[in-house]
Amino acid sequence: MSFTVFLTTIPSIFEGVYQEPVGTAGLHYLALGLGSVAAAQFSGRLIDMSYKRLCAHYNGVGKPEYRLPALVPGSILLPVGLFITGWTARADVHWIAPDIGIALVGGGTIFIFQGILTYVLDAFALHAASALAALAFFRSIAGFCFPLFAPAMYNTLGYGKGDTILACVAIAVGVPAPFFFWTYGERIRNASRYAKK
């Protein structure tokens, strides 16, 4: 959700605040790409490493919850990136500062995205395609709805306050989520007839 709304601000930050032409403003999506690519390299390794270590610690028994530690760096990077981008998107601050925030948002999103995907794949092994389709459906609905109000929100509040709201939502949902599913994930899976027991 935060990511979808955030994407709508990148052109307006660099065209409006920094007075860059459209072609130059579009180059700032490279920061998002760099953050995403870098995080993809670390995220996959972290997911595999934490899963192997937790399996070894718990007598070789694997659980989908062992994929959740990858969500922790993402739940930190995403709101930090939102705060940096929102509060540095000012004409008196160099354009590289919002780009650093944008890169952190991209990285945090990848950590969270890959962590959730691997968790869902493990939790719904036999029905993984349907579970991933359900995730894609809800992600698409959010991708459609949230950009409808994003321009009005940012016009009213500005980038600092607007991104602060997104960061607070990301903290409220993203920080407790790995711990919630670590604690209650197995109980939730056991209540579903489609989940792996």
Automatic annotation (TrEMBL):
<keyword id="KW-0812">Transmembrane</keyword>
<dbReference type="GO" id="GO:0016020">
    <property type="term" value="C:membrane"/>
</dbReference>
<feature type="transmembrane region" description="Helical">
    <location>
        <begin position="68"/>
        <end position="88"/>
    </location>
</feature>
<feature type="transmembrane region" description="Helical">
    <location>
        <begin position="164"/>
        <end position="184"/>
    </location>
</feature>
<keyword id="KW-1133">Transmembrane helix</keyword>
<keyword id="KW-0472">Membrane</keyword>
<feature type="transmembrane region" description="Helical">
    <location>
        <begin position="29"/>
        <end position="47"/>
    </location>
</feature>
<dbReference type="GO" id="GO:0022857">
    <property type="term" value="F:transmembrane transporter activity"/>
</dbReference>
<feature type="transmembrane region" description="Helical">
    <location>
        <begin position="128"/>
        <end position="152"/>
    </location>
</feature>
<dbReference type="InterPro" id="IPR036259">
    <property type="entry name" value="MFS_trans_sf"/>
</dbReference>
<protein>
    <submittedName>
        <fullName>Uncharacterized protein</fullName>
    </submittedName>
</protein>
<feature type="transmembrane region" description="Helical">
    <location>
        <begin position="100"/>
        <end position="121"/>
    </location>
</feature>
